[in-house]
Structures are given as C-alpha cells and as structure tokens.
Amino acid sequence: MSSIGTGYDLSASQFSPDGRVFQVEYAQKAVENGGTVIGLRGKDGIVFAVEKIVTSKLYEAGTNKRIFNIDQHVGMAVSGLISDARQIVEIARSEASSYKSQYGIGIPLKYLNERVSMYMHAYTLYSAVRPYGCSVILGAYEHDGPAMYMIDPSGVSYGYYGCAVGKAKQSAKTEIEKLKLSEMTCNELVKEAARIIYLVHDELKDKQFELEMSWVGKHTNGKHERIPANIKTEAEAKAKQAMAEDSDSDTEDIIILNSKTLIQTKFKLSPVMYIGAAIALGFIGFFGFTANLLVAIVIVKDAQILWTPVNVILFNLVISIKCYFGDFLVSIFGNPVAMVSAATGGWYWGYKMCLCPYLLEKYAWFMSTLGFASIGNLTVMAVERWLLVARPMQALSIRHAVILASFVWIYALCLSLPPLFGWGSYGPEAGNVSCSVSWEVHDPVTKSEAYIGFLFVLGLIVPVFTIVSSYVAIILTLKKVRKRAGASGRREAKITKMVALMITAFLLAWSPYAALAIAAQYFNVSIYQDLRSINIQTIEKKNTNIIYAKPSATVAVLPALLAKSSICYNPIIYAETKKGRLENLGESCLSTYSVYFFESLRTNKRTRNRILKEKKKSRRTFVKMRNPIATVVLFLLAVSIFCDGTTHAYNVLMATMGGTKSHTIPFVALGISLKTRGHNVTLLSAFPGPAANNGLQEFVPPIFEKEIILESMEELDRELFESNTHSVLKRVCDTGDVRAQVALYSGSISRQGNPSPWSVTPYFGKSLTQDMSFVQRILNAACLVSLRIMHWFMITGYLQPVLRKYLGNQLPDVRDLTTEIPLTLQNSHYSVADSVPYLANVVNVACLHCKPATHLSPDLETFLQRGFIFVSMGSSVRASGMPEALRQIFVAAFATLPCNVVWKWEGMKIKDLPSNVRTAAWWPQQELLGHSKLRAFVSHGGLLSLHEAAYHAAPTLVLPVFCDHDGNAAQAEKLGYALVMDLAGISIGSLRDGILKVAAIHNNSYRTAAKKRSTLLRDLPINPRKLATWWVEHVAKYKGEHLKSSTRHMSVIHYYSIDVVIFYVITLTLLMYGLKKLCWRTISKQAVKKKIN
C-alpha cells in the first residue's frame, strides 16, 4: 500500500496506515543522494573518509568540509544536506562545551551520542518542523579504547566497527565486511578507507571528487586530527594503483571496452607481423616527425604560403600550421605508442590507457580528432585555393578565414565525440597495436553500424568530393587562362600532377580504412568469422546480437598503417606545392604582406617607408627573405595580429604628462590589468620607470628625462612635437577616449555634463569638505571660479595654439574635445570621500592600485616586531629637502617614541639618527601599512597615500605640504581615521603627542574609523581594478556614445533653465500688474459713481 499523495507525507508527526513516516524516509533519501562517508574502527583508533563530489570547475579545493571537530578528542563525519549537518555540528559542540564547563573533563562519546540522537529524534515528532536531512558518524579514542556511533535522520544510533552512509553505502559496506577491523591499525585503515572510496566512486561513474580524511587514536594522543598530507597522498596513490590492477586483471581472451555491452577478443598476430608492424610504425613516426618539423622551419624561414593574396595570407598560414601541428602531435603521441605496442606483441598500455589515460583523457578520441581535423584542413585549403584561382573577387577575408578555421575543429569534434556519449565506441584495433574507432565490432546497442556509416559519408565521401571538385575546377580555370594567353600547357601539367598526387595520397591513406570498416559493418565478408561462440560468461552484461569479426593478420594491420602514414604525405604535398607555385596569382605577396601587417600595427613612418622600398625593389612573384631574424619577427607579428582579431585585443594608450610620479601608479595598475586581458598597453608619461618595471610599454619624451624640465616653454614645445612624441600623440588607438582623473578637479567632468554645484564641490586646494559654512562657501566659490578662468586661459591662450601649430589648424577646439570624452575613471569613492551626484559616465575606482600586504624580508620583520610608526612624505615631497630645524624636530620626536620608526628618507645618512629609527629611500609602503604591528602612519596627505591608509586600516597623522594635501587631509579628518597637524609652528612635543594619540592601542577612535573605512572599501561587489578594466573594454567595444549626456552641449542658461525662470517671472509680473490695474479701475469707477450719487 502506498500512501504517497494521500496527505500522510505532509507531516513528520503522522504515520501512514501501513506504519511509515514518509518525511523521515525522504530525509534518508536526501542522505543517499550525498557523497559516500565511511568510518572504520581498528584496534588503536578511528578513521573517517569522505567522498566530496566536485560539482563545478570553479570549486575551490578544500572548502565545504564534511569532517568536523566537536571537541578536542571527538570527530564527526557527515553526509546529506551540509547545511543541516552544520546545525547538528553546532548542537554537538554546544553539548560538549557545556559538559566540559560543568564537569571539567571532555564529554564521553556515548553521552554525546545520546544527546545528539535525542535532538535529531525530536525533529521527527512535531508537524511544524522537518527531520534533518543528514546522517552523522561520531568517533573518539577514550581511556577504554576507540568508539564509534552512527546516527540517521530518524535519531536512531548504533555503535559500529565499520559503517557507511551516502550514495554508495551498500557497495562500501560490502567492502568493509571483508576487512578484519579488530586486527588493523590506523595506518592500515587509512589505505583501506581510501581504496573503498575510490572503488565505490568508480562504480558510480560520478563526477570528480575530493577525498577528505581524518583520524583519532592512540598515536594522536586521543586528539582528532586531519590525516597528514603525505600519508593521505600515499593512500590515494595505492588506491588508484589497486584499481588499475583490478581493471587489467581480466581474462586473457577478453577485454571489456564498454562497461555496458562491448567486448573484443585480443587478436593475436604472429611474432613476425608484430615486428614488421613495429618497424613500419617506427619509420612512419621518424619520417613524419622529421618532415613536419622541416615544414615548420620552412614556413617560419621563408614566410611563404601557397597561392595567397594579401587578404587571406594569414588564414593560410594558420591553417597550414594547424595541419602541421596536428600531424606533429600524431607523430609525437600516436606512432610511438603504437610502435611500442607492436614491439611487445599487443596493446601494451592496458585498458585504462586505451579509454581513459590521465595524460590525454581519451587517447583514441584524441588521435581520432587530430585525424579528422587534418582531413578537414585539407578540404578547407582546397576550397580556399579554388576561390583564389577561379573566383579571385570572392576570395576569403581574414574574418571568414578565421570562422572557417574554427569550423574545421568543430567538424572534427562532431565526428569524434559521439562514441563518448554511447553512439559507437573506441577500442583496440589492428591486432591490438593501437586504439581507434571500433570498426571491427558490430553492436546494435551502440548502433556502431550507423556511426560507421556516418563517418564514411562525412569523414571520407564529402571531403573527397570537395577536394576533387576544387582542384578539378582549378585545372579547368588554368586551362581557360592558358588558351586566352596562348601559353604552353607545361605549367598546367605540373599543377595537374600535383593535384593528382594530393588526391591519390589522401585516398591511399584513408580508403582502405573506410572500406574495411564498411565491409565489417554492412557485408558478410568471408575473411570475417562469427565469434559469438566465445565463452563470455564472465561478462556481467551480455548481448547475443553482437558480432565480433576477426580479420586476418594482414587485413587487420594494413588500414591502421596506411592511415598513420598520412603524417608523411602532408609534408610531401606541401613541398611539392611549394615547388610548383602558380606564378600569376599575385605580385610580391610577402612584401605586400609585410606592409599590410606593419600598417595594421600602425608603426612609425620610418619602418613603413623601409618596407615600401623593399616592395618596389622586388618585382618577382614571391620574395625570399634572406634575413631570418626579420622573418621570425614578421611571423610573430602575424600571429599577434591574428590573436588580436579573434580575442578582441585592443591597443590602449594611457597618457599622464602632468602631476607627480605617484600619479602614474593608478595608470600602471590599470595597465597591468588590461595586459592580463590580452590588450596592448602603452604608457605615455613624464616619469620613466613605473610602467617598464611592470612589463608595460613605456614612452617618455626625452625632455622629461632631464634634471631641469623646463627652461622655456619653447623648448618644451620643440621637444614634444619635433621628437617621436609627435607620432605617438597622432597614433589612434582602438579604445576611444577614456579619462582617468587622479586629482579631484571638477572642471573636467563638468564639461561632460556632470553637475558640480559649488555648495557640495569643495576646492581641492583648501581645507574644505562638503560641510561648509557661509564664509567657506564664499571662499570656495571664489576659488572655483578663479580656477575655471585660469583653466580657460591656459587652454585658449597656450595649449590650443601649440596643438594647432604642430597638428594642424583643422584640430577642433580642445574644450570641445574634452566635452566628447565618453567616460571618466575617477580616483574617488563614497567610502573615502563625500557622496557626489554624478552621471553614468563617471566611474569611481578609488584604491585601484591597492593590494593586500605580502611578506617582508626577515631582517625588516624582526625590526617591526616591537611595533612601529611608518613615516613617508610620498614621491612629491622629498623628506631630505626639509629645513634643518624641522629635520631636528622630527629626529628628536622619533627618539622619544616607545616604538620603532620606519622613515622614507632620500638624502644622505643622518648622523644623529636614533637607534629606533631606520631610513631608506624607498619602502614597500602597502606591505608596511598592512602589517599587523603598524601603530600609525605619518603622511603628507597625498591622495594615494590616504587611500592606501584607509584600505589597510592604518590610523594616520597628516602633515599637509601643498596643493591638494589640505583638502585630502580635511576629508580624512572628517571621516575620523586621520589627525591633521600644521607643519608651521610644529614642535617636538606636539609632534610626539600627535603620533602617540593616533598610535594608541586602546580606545583609539582613529583606529576604529580606519577599520570601518577598510571594511567599506573591501566589501564591494567588484574589485575597482576589475571594474576599471571592464569599463575600458566596454568603451572600446561600444565607443561610449550611449554614455554621453546631452547636458554637455547645454549653455548655463539652458542647463539651469534660467530662460524658463525668466519667462515665468515676467509672465507672473505682467499678470499681477494686469490684475492690479483691473482692480484699481474697478475701484475708481465705484468711487466716481458714489460721488455722483
């Protein structure tokens, strides 16, 4: 009687008429769907082993543990719903903690088992709750020896010597029952537990898994611990070895190729045949490897592709390399394996290597895919050459060529993947010399007949028809051209000979294979023998409809040898084609090809002129480059352009010509991120070093490398625009224009339509925040207006004339150019600054350059252990340039501090330096700010330094020097993580007191506020660096027009609707005036009338 669906399965507290509690059974089913967990109890301890199924490739190894510590001496392994299991773990830990606090000793395992089982049972008694969907195994080593219990979802518990729960519990229990557990040590149990988990997992054919193991016993002094990695690794290795030995220990006459149905006899050839096959395979492998290697060298050295105009030369290069690469892989992996098998008299590598080796996953599938890809490549090359000769106006573009090359591999996978999903099969062939498609087996279950037919049509007939048609069309086209030109047929005969060679080689390699497979599947050929009479009682799943065909020795080996010899034919064909090139299919292909790619890369003018001269000198059809270095470089450039076109790599130019050296830091961080995404990044900067040191391309105009940058504005103009900077500035990159704003100057983004009201936009050069008084707002408005006026004069009076002088009068107004910038990456964030209303074209990426602290040198670590103060005035202020009186104040204040000081000092060694102070011209600032022993950070108030302090939760003492330092310091002080002091009038005592106030360990509001800022900066939906990278790629892809606001073109009157306000004011004034006149006239009439009366 089934009660499912009658309402008895809706509550855990209700029995069905046949005495069942369905909710409990459902909970037990949830446990059976989980990974297998086993517990083994030996004579000196307990071993837990858990099979953790890996459900995703993104899964992080070692997470979602299934084994837990309950107390120091008690372990718990769980299976089922992990969230339910964690609740049980917390209950058990609470019970253990309460017992220990009450009695002063660890909780006995028996008592803990009773408490947990009672708790789980309680959840089966009430309708408002549901049973726990998990089973747990408890184990401990107590004074009387090891003990182990298992509790199921109903709350029932039993003591066990060995138990298993989860998906494969029955198979695991069968294996456990074979063990003599009472005589085994923990070390022996570990090996057996690993073997059992691997065995039951293999039987289930499930996904990948991780093995989690722990133990508790006499050897651990009663403590529950994870099994050491070396012991666990050894146990897993022996488990895998045992499984491999089991799978190879089948009967001598039968190999199981498919666990469902397929079997195949071990065809035995004579020793002479095996030796002959080994010699033949050895020759094919050696010749194929050597020939394909030479083809690759010729391709790289000559940089010539067959019959290729400039618009498809890259496609043919890639296709040829792919053909060569597939044959090259076959010569490396395929032939040596088959040769060893032939030399040893049969498939030497075992069943696992045939179907599932660790190196290539599927050997037979891998080799078949390469073979089909080679066939597809030859077919595609034939079609492409026909288009070039017979339809020159329809020649393939690079984009079409890339799509076609990708289609080749899709085609190969479509032909090779079906056996992995049950249609057809792979297995030993040719006297078990190699592994390939099982054409010798006719199996209706896997429908091998249909699969062989599928391969015959799409893998042979269609390619042969396409190749023959293409080359016949080429010959006919050349024949027509010869008749029109009145030329001899000598060249046509040579091409015909080459075409015949290609077709003959193709058919010779693959036709015997196809013919034998079709004969085995569709015809009752006399050389085949029905082997259904073989005794196959040892096979668990039999199928009497399977026909096993045993060909003779010669017939079995010949097709495989001919197919493998195709790796020798392709190089011969390439060589013959190279020898017999058509001379009227293009002019100076290689030279034109060089110009094409160098122009695609937009290289400098000098390089293009040199290549154009080479093109004029060369009037031959094909040019042989005599400079091997140039050829290799050209080849690499071709490949890079190909990758650039298919992976959407962009050329990114980042320019930061002003500010200080630290302003390049965010650019370098963004450049590194873009480079890892495959883009070409160049940094145009006034400061050499940062970009080049991080692997980016860097361009620094020579004038900026001088000690004295500016002696006159004319010198700057000459250096900027008469040197190589000119070509760099004129270079057009793929990404469009993305502004990266370092300082918080609102004038730039306001040109793009962003609101910048003076009431909430403080001037960065003053100690102002959004919380301004009336007087401060007056000062702020004056500063912002002055800054706008100065900015306008600099652009219109100096920058615009200089740019037009060197770039042409057609250059638009610079202010209009800034208006059209689609996106601004602003080094700000509401976590470290006031919240400001911006449009979508402003993205805040503060702390773009910040990163977690890493390890320091052992010597420095020792110095920091006492606690330390880090003092750095950044790269814009040289501490060594401070007045001597101020330096003495710093030194004296540092000497009185109760901790060490790390000071960024660029000058000569200080003679009176205290012993607790260490100086250097450079320190790893972020590593020091993130160090656990940091007490305080003394800074000049640079924006990047304060961002790093907030990111690493470093309480800061700010000593502003100039420019934006005052504004940055005021903002940091408002947020609470910084104390601001003025350098003017500072004393030893005030400096020391300020440092100690910020560095206080207890009741430190600065440290608390810094931790809050750090939490806000780190708890973001996406890392700022990834966010900036995404936006750059987004603008590069879509050009950013959708981000631009129409407000950027509005005048002040239009933007603030001043004209609308004036309209309403005038209208209202006129209306009120009219009403007044009307009322006055009415009153006057009444007064006159009354007077008359």
From TrEMBL:
One of its GO terms (molecular function) is UDP-glycosyltransferase activity. One of its GO terms (cellular component) is membrane. Residues 291-574 form the G-protein coupled receptors family 1 profile domain. Pfam families: 7tm_1, Proteasome, Proteasome_A_N, UDPGT. It is found in: Cytoplasm; Membrane; Nucleus. The keyword Ligase does not apply. The chain crosses the membrane at residues 272-299, 332-351, 363-388, 400-421, 451-478, 499-523, 1053-1075. InterPro entries: GPCR_Rhodpsn, GPCR_Rhodpsn_7TM, Ntn_hydrolases_N, Proteasome_alpha-type, Proteasome_asu_N, Proteasome_sua/b, UDP-glycosyltransferase, UDP_glucos_trans. It comes from the Eukaryota. GO terms for biological process: ubiquitin-dependent protein catabolic process. Keywords: Cytoplasm, G-protein coupled receptor, Glycosyltransferase, Membrane, Nucleus, Proteasome, Receptor, Transducer, Transferase, Transmembrane, Transmembrane helix. PANTHER family: EG:EG0003.4 PROTEIN-RELATED (PTHR48043), UDP-GLUCURONOSYLTRANSFERASE (PTHR48043:SF27). The proteasome is a multicatalytic proteinase complex which is characterized by its ability to cleave peptides with Arg, Phe, Tyr, Leu, and Glu adjacent to the leaving group at neutral or slightly basic pH. The proteasome has an ATP-dependent proteolytic activity. This is Proteasome subunit alpha type-3. It comes from Apis cerana cerana (Oriental honeybee). The lineage of its organism: Eukaryota, Metazoa, Ecdysozoa, Arthropoda, Hexapoda.
